[in-house]
Structure prediction request, 130 residues.
Amino acid sequence: MRSEFDDIRAHITAEPPRPGDLLELAHSLLDDLEQVRTRETVLRSRYLALLTAARATVAADITGHPAPLTFLRRELAEQGQLPDAEQAQHILSDTMPAQAMLARAEEPAPRRPRTARGLHCGGVSRRLRG
Prediction:
């Protein structure tokens, strides 16, 4: 399948090369964009696999499956992210404060009481008209 990057690259390649030209920069930027797109595709795929495993784990737990963590353990192992006992303690010690911070961040900010003062501009003696 031909991408828009292939079309741009073909257009740039058709131009006669000139030393110090922006076409060299354009080739380099296209290469970078293609690498970023590939990395994004890989990350999206991994995220989807983890999300699917997490949903299957919750569904297995809800339905009373005897080993509901099987799906998540397998996916974490495939991605090289299944922690051992020592790593588990570090992960938990990092996770607890992070969850507490997230909980506080989701709380609405306290409202400050409004005072019935006029609109001031700059100094104390100036007032806006209106």
